Amino acid sequence: MSMRPDDHRRKWDKDEFERIAAERLKAEIEEEERSKKKAPPIKRELLKQRDYKVDLDSKLGKSVVITKNTPTSQSGGYYCNVCDCVVKDSINFLDHINGKKHQRNLGMSMKIERSTLDQVKARFASNKRKLEEKKHEYELDTRLKEAAEEEARLKELRRERRRDKKRKLQETEDPDDGPAQSELAQIMGFSGFGASKK
């Protein structure tokens, strides 16, 4: 600042402020270098298919008493032990399991491995084999079903033959009782009383 009494304007010491600015710039550069060294990029593995079945219906239809002292893993809802959180319903639990946060905690990125031409051809071949096996199983199932239907038809036919034989035997045994019974049946409006004579 100027020391003259008639000069009322404030004067700045440029050398001092240049030194302060240089120190601040130097500190910022050092901070950037430290942050680059401190956090190396994490190499996460690619997203892959689950090899276990998600248990959604083990607690279905069961009632549980929940108190203040109940641990979070046993409280109501679905518990994720990887993320240590509780989700209230099955749809949200599936969304959570397939979500970004859960996959990160498992150590996976959300990127999928690119398939090669050989992998695609192998998958097509395996699917074709599965289809052929299903076709053979289907043919076997249809054959079994047709055999069962044929057997049921034969049983029904045998029953009909037995009934016919019984009717013929009854008619031959009681020829004199037949006309009176048929007249009574016509009057009453049905063909017989339903009782069989032995």
What proportion of the residues is helical, as a percent range? 40-55%
Q: What is the general shape?
A: elongated
Q: Please state the structural category.
A: mainly alpha
What do the pLDDT scores average to? 83
Uncertain segments are none
> For the report, how would you describe the main beta sheet?
2 strands, parallel
- Gyration radius, to the nearest Å? 45 Å
Characterization of this structure:
- The chain is mostly helical.
- It is 55% helix and 7% strand.
- A two-stranded parallel ribbon has the order 1-4.
- The protein starts with 13 loop residues before the first helix and ends in a 10-residue tail after the last helix.
- GO terms for molecular function: DNA binding; zinc ion binding.
- One of its GO terms (cellular component) is U4/U6 x U5 tri-snRNP complex.
- This is U1-type domain-containing protein.
